[in-house]
């Protein structure tokens, strides 16, 4: 039985279409050819904020930081 093969590529470059992104996409395409299920996460498109330590999540079950 063949296992589900998965690979995640994380691009931390702020430049869209730059060398890092191009090379990552090339690597992921090669993994697809080998049977991997692939996905790429582009950090520049995410809003990432640190925890405020307000502890509201303990009261409400939700983070106060807007996503």
Give the structure's gist in a few sentences.
With 67 residues, the chain is an alpha+beta fold.
Could you please describe the fold and organization of this structure?
- With 67 residues, this protein is α+β, with helices and mostly antiparallel strands.
- The protein has one domain (6-60).
- The chain has helices at residues 19-33, 56-60, and strands at 6-11, 37-42.
- The chain has a two-stranded parallel sheet.
Would you list the SSEs in sequence order as H and E? Answer: EHEH
Q: Fraction of residues in helices?
A: 25-40%
**What average pLDDT do the residues reach?**
93
Number of helices: 2
Domain unit count: 1
Shape summary:
elongated
Strand order in space, largest sheet: 1-2
Unreliably modeled segments: none
Radius of gyration: 17 Å
Strand content: 15-25%
Descriptors for this entry?
two-stranded parallel sheet, 67 residues, 30% helix, alpha+beta, 2 strands
Annotate the secondary structure layout:
Elements: E1 6-11, H1 19-33, E2 37-42, H2 56-60
Parallel strand pairs: 1-2
């Amino acid at each position: 039985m063949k296992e589900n093969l998965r690979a995640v590529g994380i691009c931390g470059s702020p430049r869209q279409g730059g060398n890092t992104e191009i090379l990552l996409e090339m690597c992921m395409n090669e993994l697809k050819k080998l049977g991997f299920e692939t996905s790429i996460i582009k950090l520049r498109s995410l809003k990432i904020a640190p925890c405020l330590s307000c502890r509201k999540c303990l009261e409400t079950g939700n983070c106060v930081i807007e996503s």
